[in-house]
Amino acid sequence: MLERYTGCTVSEAYATGSNGIHMPRYPYYAAYDLPGECHYYYRRSVQYLTCQTARFLLIGGEATTLVKDGVVDFSQDLTPWWHGFFQEHFGKQMGEIVRYAGGHSYLEYLGNHPQSKLVVPHPYPADQIASDHYYLENPELIVQLNDKGRMADISSHCIPYEVYDAATFAGKTWREHWELPFVIKLAAPSGGGDGVAICQTEADVQAAQERFGGHRVKVEHFIGGYLANYNLNLHVDRDGTIRFIGGSEQRISASARYEGNFIDLCWHPSPELEAIAVEIARNAAHLGWFGVCGLDVIKAADGKLYFIDPNFRLNGSTPFHFIREHFLTHFQRPNLETGYFCYLGNPLAFLETFRPEIEKKILMPVGLYYDPSYDQKTRVYLAQVTENDVDAHVSLRDTLAQRGLLPGIHL
């Protein structure tokens, strides 16, 4: 059985100390403000992408975290709360927050800190950020390991798949090798279900070709009726030592969108599931990688386990695993339902409305996004916590919804 990892911050997980800069989520290309000249993700709204970065604010530690404007800095924007609840429980886990606006100001910040090691899920173009600015010696390794089209390089438990370049995918010859249903995924790094299309009909295939046009994709067999969708967070040290951070079952919509996690903080994977995760992490370590990864594995109806998605980065569940001991001070076996929620009002109004639940650790917000120029809603990434009781989760969710806390990101 893997030893449990006890680190609580980005600076600990990536061994950067105070000399680290953390950019939590999507690749921020300098041209992303220019329509038509950007990565696939930037076809989504800027609000959606910015909101995604907010969920890691409380786990920076000594590292500086760079986020887009609209992300709420607990220590600056929520002073009454920061000098009470949040500082008491998370003060040592939250480092400096630096916010920026526009597509170039973060580059200026990085340029002014050339000795700081950058922790980021995807590297930037070489003409923007030099390769020696990253925590990894080879930053392109991040792309390689997060490439869905190369999963078979690091695991022997993949669903059979084929990879097609953009030109081949735009044509029809590849369809001769596939019978419906099947799944089309962006091969390039993706998350949250953004790059997944489940194809049941020819209309679905056509829609996927339009949606992913111009990009390299992978096509794989459709595994319907699976029993569980696991996410395992592992930590790998510089020396290759592998430890278990925590695991969960993912909440996935019918359209394959990520909606959050169900987390039992005392759960440990079966030996077979652990072995698959260790195989993948060990193969990545042999290539020179270290840090945090979240490996998605499904259990099919016949009990067979399949590796379905590499996430060599912090995951949506990581903050809650990092603050595991915080929950154990109040619950014997805490069970969490995590995800995005939306509240009509500003962040202070949200915190005051749900103060009793937050102080009792029934609600645990770890990231807030609020842009009054867009709308008057607060997007909050949080966990709802009960004592190992599914029915209690349902009741809690319904009660909170009646008071205005609605599940979903609503962007």
From TrEMBL:
Keyword ATP-binding: yes
Start and end residues of each ATP-grasp domain: 148-340
InterPro entries linked: Asp-Met_ligase, ATP-grasp
Keywords: ATP-binding, Nucleotide-binding
Keyword Ion transport attached: no
Protein name (record): ATP-grasp domain-containing protein
UniProt source species: Thiothrix winogradskyi
